[in-house]
Amino acid sequence: MDTIDPIDLANWAGGEWKLGIPGEIVGLTNDSRKAEEGQLFAALKTSARDGHEFVGAAQQKGAAGAIVERVLEEVDLPQLRVPDVNAALLRMAKGYRSSWQAEVVGITGSCGKTTCKELLACLLSGEPTLSTLGNLNNLIGVPMSVLRPEGAAARFAVLEAGISEPGEMEQLARVVDPEWGVVTAIGPSHLQDLGTVENVALEKGKLLQGGRLKRAFVGETAEPYLSQLGCEGACVVKPDSSLSADWSYRVESIGSRSRLSQRLEGVVETFEYEGTGAGLASNAALAIAVAYSMGISVERLREALRFWKPSQMRNEWRDVEGHSVFLDCYNANPISMKDSLATFVTQTPEDQPRLFLVGCMEELGAEAGRLHEELGRYFPLRKEDLLLVIGGEASSVLRGMKSAGRELGNCFEITEIEEARDYFEGFVGSVFLKGSRRYRLESSLAFIKGGAVC
Predict the structure, then answer these.
(1) What biological-process GO terms show up in the record (predicted)?
(2) pTM
(3) Which residues of 82-91 are buried (b: 16+ CB within 10 A; e: fewer)?
């Protein structure tokens, strides 16, 4: 089994081992309940709990040691004492990443990061490839994803970086330090702390400023912000029916699958994959462009993509007791919401009603009301459809619909998911579930006769 040297970890962290030095480390965790044999437990402090209280529990699960700010003498476990556990994780991850031979792809953007990461990891999977665990892309998740022993032997690594505040990307960029950069999209997201879309681009662009960077690729919505991204020479990957420019693409739906044609260095190649929608097509085209640039053959790309499937609850279609359900419950911002709605509308029958259960978009700051009203004006509701909106800006969505002259007889604001049960009762047609993670809209699947919660 691959391992990480605990002495190296101490050196990178600027810490000191107390109560002994563990054997080789097989990975890290910050959840004592999920600690595994040989892992290092990070005793992180949060507003909700102090990880130091769980060092003993991690030991009982088999942890080989712990990273702590104060040594717990009563726990017979090697402990790496550091001034700040969060900062130490970032320093260790930076040190470990700098020892890799792997070519690293850094992915960021207002939406689509995880899907693009999973697509690219699939395309590179013919060689040993490390990729971000799930969507662990923040100041804790990135170090946890990097500090895995398989990084030492990896040929490629695909790491996503997500931020919500100024200054975070600078810290993540020092860890990821990519040879290849991807910005999936730029739009209104995390405006609560970032303020404007221009500021979003300025912060995201810090991932692309490292000395290792060979080339950056950006999606269509990022093109207007190339100057803010600080990467005006980036390759723009965008739809073009004529396929006149390198990296341009066009896509057509074939049932539940898509056929994407893309110009790769002068030659048009065709690929197929599971799923539909403009957002997914953009992520697929970005992943293809990067993997091809990294030396992966078209044949390998085509074969890998053919068997790729979207993750659960991300642009996922399910058949639930005869209902066609579109499930996308991991995040929501104006770009992803409109893309999901367009995908759903084009893939559902015109002669059947549709039920939309929408969770409000979070962290939009002072722009929240305006952006939700804009969503209401855009909303593709027909008179036979039903709309349920949950969240603090639900009234703004309905206000936007009213201002656009829409009938609101079948539009309702709800405050709890349980209130949706009666609306699902007896409904026959297609169902749309999209919203920020906090609303856990997938729980409404239980309201469909025979449905099951994810």
Answers:
(1) cell division; cell wall organization; peptidoglycan biosynthetic process; regulation of cell shape
(2) 0.92
(3) beebbebbbb
